[in-house]
Design a protein that fits this description.
heterodimer; A: 166 residues; mainly alpha; Four Helix Bundle (Hemerythrin (Met), subunit A); 2 domains; 7 helices; 81% helix; B: 343 residues; 12 helices; 5% strand
């Protein structure tokens, strides 16, 4: 049942991924991307990581994609007239590189092997959110704080850039 | 005695789930339908009018008449509109608000005996251990419907309404999320069920007494999130015809209104659960308590609508970013200090 559900969601993910690339109107392609994010969130839930799923929806689907949609709407981009040949070529090159990487991992066997101390049993026992919280605020406190300062700098930079215009 | 789950009694579990979902959905939609009638009555009486009186006794059949009327109207899609987003948008507003109801607990555990075993059935559709985050995530998705409705109609009023809505909802989401953080710093859990359990002692255990500022902030930001007066800038009819839903007609138009009232029910349910003890207390009947609190808050929202004028758009943004957000942050800092000192 779980496997069946996985294949169903995976199918939807792949289809919406294809729509993201193939859709003519940028808004439709952004909507398909939102759908892809949703499917990824479902995968997180199936991996018993509901916290990651909620964050995925909140941050990517709820905030970033809304802003992207915003930009698309304000720029009022029309339907793309035609795709240049070079774009397609580069797309094929990048796609085949990713495919080779995937095949390489699969050929070495155990592509879903769990490495490290955090196994499924530990997650079920301690709780997924608790584990993330502990490692974020105990083991990786310094990187966490550095990231926040980086984001703060970005915010201040954005404010200064926006101020110039007025 | 064990918790009913898909593994120990699959058929019973699915049946119980279906019943719970149908009841919650039915009750929510019933409230949505009759909230339109109550709102017109309440505002009417506050403005020394009578409100609807002609359809049925006291105008009680008015929501049904409205529904039938909208159902039989012609469904117009403007030729210049982008078809797919235009059709999707009303659904994308209504669905996130309805599925948020799934994590709001509405009563204590029920016991059910079948096949010699006693199962515990919790009166809540699902108890996610990330309940609050789920609510915030779904609230974030509500923006899409309004933005898309505004953009896809290809009309300037709709577009301005849609853009106002998304700017407003993104700004107030932050303050709303931050004000809730103070609550779960005290509760030390994200599960709605646990949060209600911690408030179940007496009225004095309600989080509204421990977090009065968070309660106030969440009430204001919640009202702004669901675009109710005095924050209903997206559909300011005096300047934008009716904002993002200008070009809509028939059932699609009705869906926007259903979404507005469903959002009211949801936000009232969340406030009741997080701050006012949820289904526990003051009476011994769980669902009655929760419904009473929801009705009380919805009446409060209608009262505000009858009393206050709309705020100006720049005032709205200033309030969100320069007053509510810093207050919410300060509240988190103070709560953190108190929690650390009390240990």
């Amino acid at each position: 049942m779980q496997v069946l559900f996985f294949y169903l969601v995976a199918l939807v993910t792949v289809i919406s991924g294809v729509i993201v690339v193939a859709a003519k109107s940028p808004v439709n392609s952004a909507l398909a991307l939102v759908n892809t994010f949703f499917c990824l969130a479902v995968f997180y839930v199936m991996l018993s990581a509901p916290f990651m799923a909620a964050i995925q929806i909140m941050v990517y689907a709820g905030a970033i994609m809304v802003l992207i949609l915003f930009v698309i709407m304000l720029l009022n981009m029309g339907v793309e007239p035609f795709k240049k040949f070079t774009h397609v070529t580069w797309g094929v090159v990048a796609g085949s590189l990713v495919l080779m990487l995937t095949l390489f991992f699969i050929s070495r066997g155990q592509p879903t092997k769990v490495v490290g101390a955090i196994t499924r049993d530990v997650i079920l026992k301690e709780g997924h959110t608790e584990l993330i919280g502990k490692s974020l605020f105990v083991n990786f406190l310094l990187p966490f704080e550095i990231t926040s300062i980086l984001l703060l700098v970005a915010i201040i930079g954005a404010v200064i850039l926006a101020k110039k215009e007025v | 005695m064990e918790l009913l789950s898909l593994s120990n009694a699959p058929l019973l579990f699915i049946a119980a789930m279906m019943i719970k979902i149908l009841v919650v959905f039915g009750v929510t939609m019933g409230i949505v339908a009759y909230a339109t009638w109550v709102e017109r009555k309440v505002i009417g009486h506050m403005q020394t009018r009578l409100g609807p009186t002609l359809t049925g006794p006291m105008g009680l059949l008015q929501p049904i008449a409205d529904g039938i009327k909208l159902f039989f109207k012609e469904d117009i899609i403007p030729t210049e509109a982008s078809k797919i987003p235009f059709v999707l948008a009303p659904m994308m507003i209504l669905i996130p608000s309805l599925i948020t109801m799934a994590v709001i607990p509405f009563g204590s555990d029920m016991q059910f005996t079948a096949g010699g075993k006693t199962y515990i059935i919790p009166l809540q559709i699902t108890d996610l251990n990330i309940g609050i985050l789920y609510i915030l995530a779904m609230a974030g998705l509500g923006v899409y419907g309004i933005t898309l409705a505004g953009w896809s109609s290809n009309s300037k009023y709709s577009l301005i309404g849609g853009i106002r809505a998304s700017a407003q909802m993104i700004s107030y989401e932050l303050a709303a999320g931050l004000s809730i953080i103070a609550v779960f710093m005290l509760s030390e859990t994200l599960s709605m069920r646990e949060i209600v359990a911690q408030q179940s002692g007496s009225i004095l255990d309600w989080y509204v007494w421990k977090q009065p500022l968070a309660f106030l902030l969440f009430m204001i930001t919640g009202t702004a999130e669901i675009n109710r007066t005095p924050f209903d800038m997206p559909e300011a009819e005096s300047e934008l015809v009716s904002g993002f839903c200008t070009e809509y007609s028939s059932m699609k138009y009705a869906l926007f209104f259903m979404a507005e009232y469903a959002n009211m029910v949801v936000i009232a349910g969340i406030i009741a659960t997080l701050f006012l003890g949820g289904w526990s207390g003051p009476t011994p009947w769980g669902p009655v308590n929760l419904l009473g609190k929801i009705f009380g808050f919805m009446f409060f929202l209608m009262w505000i609508r009858a009393t206050f004028p709309r705020v100006r758009y720049d005032q709205l943004m200033k309030l969100g970013w320069k007053v509510l957000l810093p207050l919410a942050l300060a509240n988190i800092v103070v709560t953190g200090l108190v929690v650390v000192l009390a240990q």
